[in-house]
Each structure stands twice: as structure tokens, then as C-alpha cells.
Amino acid sequence: MSSKKQKYYVVWQGHHPGIYTSWEDCKVEVHNYTGASYKSFESKAEAEHAFTSGPETKKPTYKVKKTAYSSKTGIIKESLCVDAACSGNPGLMEYRGVWTADKAEIFHFGPVQDGTNNIGEFLAIIHGLALLQKQEYFKTPIYTDSKTAISWVVKKKANTKLQPTNRNKELFDMIRRGEKWLKENKWENPILKWDTKNWGEIPADFGRK
């Protein structure tokens, strides 16, 4: 008898969004969750791509006011956008989060020495998640233009090739704290890929290109 083919289950909206390798684990995350959004895929690559891209055909199932959407683009205005900037690779790195509707800056960190843009994006998402949790905005989406950072958050691990040094000790302490937060907390906030091609630069962009 042939073994059952491995499937991968993407949970965009559930008790803890992510990618799961069994239906039982997926079912736990969507059971009794209003507006759950999930789907199975045949390969890990398809699942990872689908998770970072977001649901392709389903409308957002979290409750927002109709006026929260841009009628032309479908952007969820009642959301948080994050972005990072880095002068060099590695170099001076900073990140920030802004409210999508009016571009008001919500938080800003840095610069710190010897960072990378991907690390900044990763930390910005975690900062945003922690802040939204603290303020009880449990379903407010976070936009980022970094697929890499989204994949790191999904895996709860910064898969950086950057090596720790005395100069970037503070940065690596932040990475460890961020990974610890991801492993110890659950969140419902959708983490969505900003469509730069169709929407222009993300509102949190530092404007230094």
C-alpha cells in the first residue's frame, strides 16, 4: 500500500496563521474562528508562496468598515505598514511602522550598526505585531513589501547569513528577543504582501531610493 501524499495547509486567518503539515493541526487553528481562511496545497513551495501572497480569490474576512478600503486598489486602509532602510549591506539599519490611511508614523527604531534590510523588515513586523496585540487590535493587518521577512516570521526564525560581531551585538539581541516573542505568542493579524507594482511604494517607505 502506498503511503499517503504529504499535504500542506495554509491558514491565512485563524487562531495562529501559518503553514501546517497535517489537517488535524490546521483544524485546531480554524475551529471556532469566525471568518477563518485556509486551504491545502500539494507542495511546501506552493504553500509558502500562497501564504506570503495571501488568499488569491477570497475577500478579506476580518470585519472592517467599508470606508477602510481604497475603491481603486483594494488596499485595506485601516492597517499598519512597515518598512526598513539600510545604508550598505550590512550597514546602518532602521525601520518604522505607519498607519496606512494617513501615513502617520506609529513607531520608529534605529539606526543601529551593521544590519541588513531583511533583518529590519523582520523586526518591524514583530514590532508591529507586538504593538497591535498590546493595544488589542487583534485583526488589524500588517503590510510589508518583503517576502523574505514574511517567510522568516512564518518560520519564527531570522534566516540571515549575517554573522554576529561586537558591532552588531545589540541587533542580534533584538533578533533573539523577536524570535522568542514569535514562539511564545499567537496572533490573528494577517501579514500581507504590499503590491508595489500596482500600488506604488509602501507608505512606510523611507523615500531614499
Topology pattern, helix = H, strand = E? EEHEHEEEHEHHEH
Largest sheet: 5 strands, mixed
Estimate percent helicity: 25-40%
Low-confidence stretches: 57-71
Which structural class matches the secondary elements? Answer: alpha/beta
| Percent strand | 15-25%
Radius of gyration, in angstroms, nearest whole number: 17 Å
Mean pLDDT metric: 82
User: Roughly how many Å apart are the termini?
Assistant: 58 Å
| DSSP summary, beta strand count | 8
Strand order of the largest sheet: 6-5-4-7-8
State the oligomer.
single chain
Number of helices: 6
In one word, what is the shape? globular
Compile the SSE list and pairings.
Elements: E1 8-13, E2 18-20, H1 23-30, E3 37-41, H2 44-53, E4 80-88, E5 91-99, E6 105-115, H3 117-134, E7 142-144, H4 147-155, H5 169-184, E8 191-193, H6 196-199
Parallel strand pairs: 4-7, 7-8
Antiparallel strand pairs: 1-2, 1-3, 4-5, 5-6
In short:
With 209 residues, the chain is α/β, with parallel strands linked by helices. 31% of the residues lie in helices and 23% in strands.
Question: Can you tag this structure with a few keywords?
Answer:
single chain; about 210 residues; alpha/beta; 5-stranded mixed beta sheet; 3-stranded antiparallel beta sheet; globular
